[in-house]
Amino acid sequence: MQEPEASEPEATRRDADVTESSRANRGWWDRNADEYQTEHGTFLGDDRFVWGPEGLDEVEAELLGPPEELKGKDVLEIGAGAAQCSRWLAGQGARPVALDISHRQLQHALRIGGPFPLVCADAGALPFADGSFDLACSAYGALPFVADPRLVLREVRRVLRPGGRLVFSVTHPIRWAFPDEPGPEGLSVSGSYFDRTPYVEQDEEGRAVYVEHHRTLGDRVRDVVASGFRLVDLVEPEWPVWNTSEWGGWSPLRGNLIPGTAIFVCERSEMGAPPAEGWGRD
């Protein structure tokens, strides 16, 4: 007897808390890791450090610092996927640790290989001692999917050493006002930029199977500062002429008109640090 096909999840906008978001996204990435790596693996490469669909490469951007200064640095990659960025960092002589919430994503990292640890954990509860890393980075990892970004940012601050740098990229907040389409239909405003209601895909029982959270540009800046960081730079990569590929709602058409990625370059601030209660590790 043929098994009935699973119904497509329903897309909606509704609240989703920390626990529901974490559970849904762990499951989604475990189920979709194979397809993701098949579809995007060539673009990402095995050992490139790409900040987003525009193709901005850390070799050119040097947002973590000059490559020659990465040697010997302890670096935490958050939302590492198949750990392409960690593999590039290791090639520069750094000592990366690749962390992801998805076991299946890390299996792809193991398949490709690399001389660095792989850690399956939630970014909101990092399993590392205080001051374990010199640098932290995240290319579209964790922060777009968590209900409480300050929880993650404070955890990252905790595991960074004084003066440590965090660089992370997320979908540019302005994109939330437009349909997620690569063609002309993705160029007309369809919703309020200020509507922070999460995007949720849910099953027939109403259980979230995918969650993405929206923060305005101002929200992101306030999150960074309130979590004990100093914002050093905000990079909005332009779409390069060489990149003719589409990635979901990203495309040359849209990329030449509106930003698609926002990259936050932050340094751990020793002034006005957030209190340890409620976010430090025991």
From TrEMBL:
<dbReference type="InterPro" id="IPR029063">
    <property type="entry name" value="SAM-dependent_MTases_sf"/>
</dbReference>
<keyword id="KW-0808">Transferase</keyword>
<dbReference type="InterPro" id="IPR013216">
    <property type="entry name" value="Methyltransf_11"/>
</dbReference>
<dbReference type="InterPro" id="IPR050508">
    <property type="entry name" value="Methyltransf_Superfamily"/>
</dbReference>
<protein>
    <submittedName>
        <fullName>SAM-dependent methyltransferase</fullName>
    </submittedName>
</protein>
<dbReference type="Pfam" id="PF08241">
    <property type="entry name" value="Methyltransf_11"/>
</dbReference>
<feature type="region of interest" description="Disordered">
    <location>
        <begin position="1"/>
        <end position="32"/>
    </location>
</feature>
<feature type="domain" description="Methyltransferase type 11">
    <location>
        <begin position="76"/>
        <end position="168"/>
    </location>
</feature>
<keyword id="KW-0489">Methyltransferase</keyword>
<dbReference type="GO" id="GO:0008757">
    <property type="term" value="F:S-adenosylmethionine-dependent methyltransferase activity"/>
</dbReference>
<dbReference type="GO" id="GO:0032259">
    <property type="term" value="P:methylation"/>
</dbReference>
